[in-house]
Structure formats: C-alpha cells, structure tokens
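re: that chain from earlier
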Amino acid sequence: MRANLGNDATAEQLETLKQRTFWGREKENLIYPIALANLVLHGIDKPNLWHGNTLTGRETYGGLFEGAPQTFDVILTNPPFGGKEGKEAQTNFDYKTSATQVLFLQHVMRSLRDGGRCGIVLDEGLLFRTNQDAFTKTKRKLLDECDLWCVVSLPAGVFTAAGAGVKTNLLFFAKGRPTRKIWYYDLTDIKVRKKTPLTLKHFEDFFRLLPTRADSELSWTVDMDERKRIAAEEARPLKEQSTAKGQQAAQWSEKLKDLKKAKPRDAAAIEEAESKIEELTRKSRDLAAKAEEIEDAVYDLKAVNPNKRPVVDTRTPEELMDLIEAKGREISEALATLRSR
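^ sequence. v structure.
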C-alpha cells in the first residue's frame, strides 16, 4: 500500500496508513504482545489491536481499538476451527452452533461493508457438511449475500506446524452481490512436509490463470445458478408428493373428527383413520426431508477436481497372482541364501 502511494504521498496519507488503516483482533494472551510488536516493527505507529474473545465480545483490553469502524473494506483472517464455543458466544449469531469456524464466517460477513472483500482460511469440513442446519444456512447466506468467486483447495498438512492438521481451503468473496459462479483451483497434489512447506512459488500457475479465471487441469468453474436449478427440478416432484400426502392426511383428520362425534362410535373406523393419518404424515415428512436433502446438497462446496483422472489398477487377477508367485520365489531364494550363511 505504501508503494502504491508513490513518492507523492502526503503527510496526511502516511499518517492514515500508519494509524487508521489496519484494525485487528486477537484472543491469546501470548500472541497479543507479539502481534503488537510485529506491527510496530513493520511501520504501523498505532497498532489498533483489540484483545479479547471476538465471538462472545468479552474484552480483555480494548484501549487500542477506540474509534474502530463497525464494518471494513477488506478482511484477511485465519480463524480457529475445530474449537467449541458455548451458549454465550452463540447468542450473538443468527445460526447457532458450537463450531467456531461457522460462527467466525458469520462474524466476517457481518463485519464487511457492501463491496468489501474477504480472504479467509477455512477447514474443508465447513465446505462439505450439509447435515447440520447452521452449516447449511451459513453457506446459503454466504452465497446469497456475497460473491464467493474463488476457492483454493490447499494440500494436506499446510497448518500442521501451527497445530491444525485438518485439510484447509482459501475462500475469497465480496459482499453485496450473490454468487453466480465459483472458480476453483486445486493444490492438493503438492506434498507439504516439515522441510518442504507451501511457498509462493507453488501459486505461480494460480496467479497466471487468476486474471481470466481460466479452466485447466487444476482449475474449473462451478455454475451455482445451474446447480440450484437442477436441484430445484429434482426436488420439485418430491415436494409435490409431500404436499399431496399432507393434504390427504388433513382430509383423514377431518374424517376422524366426524367419526369421533358419530353415535355409535365405530372403533375400527377410528383406528383405521388414525393409522392412515400417521402413515400419510410420515410419508409427507420423509418426502419433504428428501427434497430438502437434495436442495441442501447444493451447498456442498468442497473442491472436487473433475479433471483429475483416478489411478486405476488395470492388472488382471491372473497377472496379480503371477506377481505374488514371483515375489514369493524371490523371498524363498533370499531366505535360502541367509540360511546357507
């Protein structure tokens, strides 16, 4: 940002950059002073860091955060995931769950201005899970209110040294317009180890394709409008059947009321009506659940590379048995050599 100002930067611009541009939050007591020192060493005269629990709002020290804006133009974050938050944190959010990553994603969306941009690291579990209401609704809100334009699938082990061994992804989105298409890039084939970490060099092909979001062996585009349309068409007959079963159950309920008022009471007819109501209600509920499952599957955002060819062993059973037999002979010969010595 300083370089972009060039040599014509005014004193006021430099003052704004050093004192009123960067705002952050940190929970851990040991990391907070390190973050303060790091900002000062990088030329930020006034490090506007808030110390406390972001999700509960419980403040440890907020003196440096005075005058902070309510919303931001850019948010960059690697929030904790895999942790659990209690009821105190969940009361602040629309979709309640103990999963910290889901709450943080809601917090980030709330904290962005219209047109604001975000880059966030999230675990893969958040992307593919659709079996919990909070996960699905949070992702639905993300796609409805923000343009999730890019997902980078990172290799396993990127954050192992930092204590997070789960598979992770980079998500980039802008607030204020819905998601139409998502461009994916796959880095999963890179082997990340202690002595061979993920570096900027691994992103060279990504940066080459990024301006046009071009498709390649490692990148592809998912049309979310089309995916929603297909899901809606598939779910529609199930919804219609569910509605019909529900209406039949309602008709039987009316019939049951009349049967109970009738004199004399027909116990067999009443029992049949109750059984019919229970059966139709159950079928209606099951059909509605299947339809919802189809529609929720739209929000499985996991990166699955359609261009990756699976490694298939094409050897026949006879070839495999010949190989086993040959290896057996090698082992027998090796054992015989050892025994002769």
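The mean pLDDT is 91.
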